[in-house]
Amino acid sequence: MIDPRSCVLVGAPVQIGAGQPGCLMGPDAFRTAGLGRALQSLGHTVEDLGNCAAAPLPELTHPNRAIKNLTETAGWVQSLTEAAYEAKQGGRTPIFLGGDHALAAGTLPGIAKAVREEGRELFLLWLDAHTDFHSLDSTESGNLHGVPAAYFTGREGFDGYFPPLEVSVKPENITMMGIRSVDPAEHHALLDSPIEVLDMRAIDESGVSVLLNDFLGRVEAADGVIHVSLDVDFLDPEIAPAVGTTVPGGATFREAHLIMEKLNDCGRVCSLDLVELNPFLDERGKTARLMVDLTASLFGRKVMDRPTRPF
After folding, report:
1. pLDDT tens figures, 87-141
2. 130 is catalytic
3. Cα 265 vs. chain centroid, distance in angstroms?
4. Active site residue 145
5. Residue 53 has what DSSP assignment?
6. Residue 247 CA, distance from chain mean position
7. Which of 236, 276, 282, 293 is catalytic?
8. Is 276 a catalytic residue?
9. Which pLDDT tens digit goes with each residue over 21-40?
């Protein structure tokens, strides 16, 4: 039986963190693909708060000349931290519609603050091809969708650039799943971090169910809650082409749905990011619809309930 939730949709049309334009259309693509209707059909209430905007900040410069759009990214971090904190009040379940993954540098600190005030322990399931664990110093591409995990876990090098971090996410409470593209600097930093990194080989060898059960067991033991950050490129590009950072060999349709169904079964998901959807690269809305279907599975749709779709 589905536990009715009060879902809050928050649009985050961030595209300056990515190298390819188009993600700013993501929030409206999710809406057009019927995300709100899908949640309402499952018995949840849905409030759409519209789209956020980046806070205006004084111009920022950094010694790493590769960095792009630092000031605007910092503005997004500030506004989304505030928006996430407010959206989580009253036991509501925020769903952040991206936008590139730079938005997680704002959503996670805001959710972490709200969850701490609730007296709960926050865990993070990061579903992505990438770890996004670069510091501002180490990024070579300069695309700041590659730094959020470093920032919200409290790594050094963000002071004076991104907003001061009130509440960080504990690295030992993070599981990254589906990883298959990690730069050397990120890999080196992760060797010294307690973040659990599960690459596609781990999924191939053990299966998503076994790996996810281990994560959910730790969450239950701590009586914790889960923020899920779902990047389109977690999925295999054959089924989800609408992303500017495609990496072959991603999660299959069934693996992704199984993860969502098991997360629903555990009843501990408190918030969700949907990121890196680039409708400009989609095929007649194929990826947007898949992401909506996965969200519906996360919020209670069962295999037996899935509608047949003509193509």
Report:
1. 999 999 999 999 999 999 999 999 999 999 999 999 999 999 999 999 999 999 9
2. yes
3. 20
4. yes
5. -
6. 17
7. 276
8. yes
9. 999 999 999 999 999 999 99
Would you kindly state where each structural domain of the chain is located, as residue ranges? 6-305
> Does 233 participate in catalysis according to the annotation?
yes
Of 44, 134, 145, 227, the catalytic one is 145
What fold, for 6-305? Arginase; Chain A (3.40.800)
Residue 311's pLDDT is what? 47
**CA–CA dist 44, 65 (Å, integer):** 46
- 199 as an active site residue: the answer is no
Structure tokens at 83: 């928006």
CA distance 2 to 241: 31
For 148, the enclosing helix (H) or strand (E) is helix 148-152
User: Of the ranges 71-75, 158-162, 264-268, 306-310, which one carries the lowest mean pLDDT score?
Assistant: 306-310
**pTM for this predicted structure:** 0.96
Q: Please state, in angstroms and rounded to a whole number, the distance separating the CA atoms of residues 4 and 244.
A: 35
Which residues have C-beta within 8 Å of that of residue 192, sequence separation ≥ 6? none
Given the residues 100, 128, 273, 293, select the one marked as catalytic: 128
Question: Which residues does residue 46 pair with via DSSP β-bridges, in sequence order?
Answer: 7
Strand order through the sheet with 122-127: 45-51, 6-12, 93-98, 269-275, 225-231, 122-127, 174-179, 196-199
Catalytic residue list contains 231: yes
Q: What is the pLDDT of residue 19?
A: 81
